[in-house]
Specification:
Helices cover 71% and strands 0% of the residues. It is an all-alpha fold and 333 residues long. Helix 3 packs antiparallel against helix 4 (92-125), helix 7 (178-215) packs antiparallel against helix 8 and helix 9 packs antiparallel against helix 10 (262-279). Belongs to the G-protein coupled receptor 1 family.
Length: 333
């Protein structure tokens, strides 16, 4: 029965076209709001802060914004497919290219959010200890390395069945091939580790920085409070955007393996697609992380784009931020 619910799931046809048009509207709204916001942030990093000359987190934050912009360019195609009642493009090449871009840039966004929190952890909890990250962040090599390491992780996710929720079918439907099982398992491992491992790291960094603030009785508690505010904001972004889709994927896999009811499988797949749309909201929230990271960036951004909000804001100068009398102070606080 070609028009059955199960056949539509297999063909990546949306069974609830009205809901998928709503998903498409959300993605279009995200693009309209996030694209100019991220473009303005990217402009400041390149032309005002000159991130490649900085010894701060600016290199990481620039790559975070770059990943978001590349992801935003994919969303109109995704929205078009949803409007047409399709979960993915029917063109195999376009489908695989979209999956490659979506998972590469979402992975990069997660990676640079995590690295930013790790760097803040070392600066606050182990301020005097030399570490590899502190050395490498002075040059763009570590950012290039992160992008290169993410490339092989996108290979298993480029298989078109992933987005149509067909991994690990029920025993009655599954193909009895070892290669198929290995590919399905590898694909799911990549999806979950890309979210779960960074989340564990973020929780650890947040707890350690908060404990450091509690034990701090003398010195500059303002910097520590800003560090806590930063890692907390990263945790909020991560928890709001990425954890729900990981939980939705887990539920979907359980239903596909254990429940032999096409209507329930379809509802789980539709819910998962909606949670994936929610994950694209990080393109709107990441610029806020940039403001929490850098007092200088916030001051420049307000004075450049919202001067009526920046009348009493003073932009920190490079000379003052790198003064020998304040060796521990920098523009990222």
């Amino acid at each position: 029965m070609i028009n059955s619910t199960f056949q539509k799931i297999e063909d990546c046809e949306a069974t609830n076209k009205a809901l998928y048009k709503f998903y498409a509207a959300i993605m279009i709204m995200i693009v309209l709001l996030a694209l100019p916001l991220n473009a303005s942030v990217l402009h400041l990093f390149i032309f005002k802060l000159k991130f490649w000359k900085s010894n701060t987190n600016n290199v990481f934050l620039f790559n975070l914004v770059l990943a978001d912009i590349l992801l935003l360019f994919c969303l109109p195609i995704k929205a078009y497919n949803f409007i047409q009642g399709e979960r993915r493009s029917t063109n195999d090449t376009v489908c695989k290219a979209m999956l490659f871009m979506l998972f590469l840039n979402r992975g990069a966004s997660i990676a640079f959010l995590t690295v930013t929190s790790i760097d803040r952890y070392f600066n606050v909890v182990h301020p005097g200890r030399k570490n590899l990250l502190k050395t490498l962040k002075k040059s763009p090599q570590i950012s290039i390395l992160i992008w290169l390491l993410l490339l092989p992780l996108t290979i298993p996710t480029m298989l078109k069945t992933f987005e149509c929720c067909n991994s690990h079918k029920s025993v009655e439907e599954r193909e009895d091939t070892l290669i198929k099982d290995v590919v399905d398992s590898l694909r799911e491992v990549v999806f979950f580790t890309q979210i779960v491992i960074p989340f564990i790291i973020l929780v650890y960094c947040t707890v350690r920085i908060v404990n450091r603030l509690r034990k701090k009785t003398v010195g500059d508690r303002t910097k520590l409070k800003r560090a806590v505010f930063l890692v907390t904001s990263v945790m909020v972004v991560f928890s709001f955007c990425f954890l729900p889709c990981a939980l939705g994927r887990m539920v979907l896999l359980i239903i596909r393996v254990e429940v032999n009811d096409e209507s329930i499988q379809d509802k789980a797949a539709v819910a998962f697609d909606g949670l994936m749309v929610l994950s694209y909201m990080d393109c709107l929230l990441d610029p806020l992380v940039c403001c929490f990271c850098s007092t200088k960036f916030k001051a420049i951004y307000l004075s450049k784009y919202f001067p009526f909000f920046a009348k009493d804001v003073t932009v920190p100068s490079e000379s003052s931020s790198r003064s020998p009398s304040h060796p521990k102070q920098n523009t990222i606080i």
